Amino acid sequence: MRHVTDDERRARLAVRHALAPPFRVKTPEAATEAMTALHATEAASVYLSCGARVDGFELADLDRALYEDRSLVKQLAMRRTLFVFPRDLLPHVWSSASARVATAERARIAKGVVKVGLTTNGEQWLKEARTQLLALLAATPDGCTTADVRAAVPMIDVKVELSAGQTFTASGVLTLLSLSGEIVRGVNTGRWFTSRHRWTLMDRWLGATPPPPPSATDGYRELVRRWLHSFGPGTEDDLVWWLGATKSAVRTALQALDAVEVSLDGGATGWLLADDLDEVRDPGPWVALLPVLDPTVMGWKGRDFYLGPHREQIFEIRGNAGTTAWVDGRVVGCWVQDGDGVVRVALLEKVSARARRALDAEAVRLTQWLAGQRIGTPYSTPAMKAALAE
To answer: pTM of the prediction?
Structure first.
C-alpha cells in the first residue's frame, strides 16, 4: 500500500487548489473546477476564494460567470449548505446530495404546517404552495425576490416556530424547490458582498431544459470522483462529512471508481483515484489569505495535517471556519480588517522572516483589492476576535 505523508498532502493541496503561484488559474470557472465547488453561504467568500486563486481577478470576472454566461450556478446541497457549482455538475448534485437534504426538508415542513394548524395535510399544502410559486415565477421573466414571493403567494407568508430554534417561513418552500433544481438563485440585486437575489425558474436561467438527473448512485459517484481529485487522499470519514451522506453511499462510490487505498500519517486509510497515484512534489514556498468558509479549510473532517494545534482557534462553535493565513500548506493564523478596511495578519505561531514578509505583502494586495470595503461575517472565530481586540 502506498504511503502518503502529511508533507505530500500539503503539496497536493497547494497544486490542486491553485494556491501556490505556479499553479494559480486564469478564470473563476477554473478555480471552481479545482475545488469541485465553492462555499457560497457568505456572498463575499465566493469572490475572495476566487481572488486567492485567479491571477488578475476582478469582480466582473465572477459576475460574468454567475450572471451572464451562467457557467457557474448557486445550488443548495451538501449539509444544507449553499455552494457554487460548475454547471455540468448540477444534475449529479440534484440527484444525490441535494435530494438527500430535500427529503428531510420536505418531511420537516409537511409535519410542521400540520402541527401548527395551517392544514391537516402537509403534503397537499406543499403541493399547492409549489404550484403557486412555479406559476408566479413562470409569469415573471425577471424573477422575484423573497419579499415579492411572500406578497404574491400569501399562503406561504407565515412564520411558524416548529421546534426550539427552528422556524419555518416562506423561504422554507423556496429552499425546498431550489434543492430539487426547479428554481434557482438568479441575479443578485445587492452588491457583491451581499445576497439579495431574485428567484427564477432553473430551466429559464440555464436557457434550456436541464438534462434528467442521473441516479443517486451515479450522482454520488461523480461527486466523490471530483472530491478525490480536489482533496484526495482523504478518508471515508472525510467524504461522509463533506457529502453529508451515508457510509454506504460513499463506499459504493469508492468501489465503482476503483479508488485505491493509501496509508496516511497517523495510521488512517485514505483514498486516491487510480490514475492519481504519482507523488506530487513540493511546489515551493507559498502563502495565502483565505476567507471565511473557504473550501480548502472546509474540505476534510480530519484536519490535523494542515491545522496542527489551531483547530479551536480557527473554527467557531458551530464548526464554521473563519479567515485563515497559510504558509506552505499549513494554517498559521488568520486575517482581519481594521476600521479603515486595512487587512492585518494575526499569527498563531512563529514563521520565518521570509514567510512573514510574504504574508504582509499578500495583506497589502488584499487591502488594495478590497479598496476600503470592510467584509463583515457572523462566523467570527476565537482567533479573529483576539486579533480584533489587539
So the answer is: 0.95
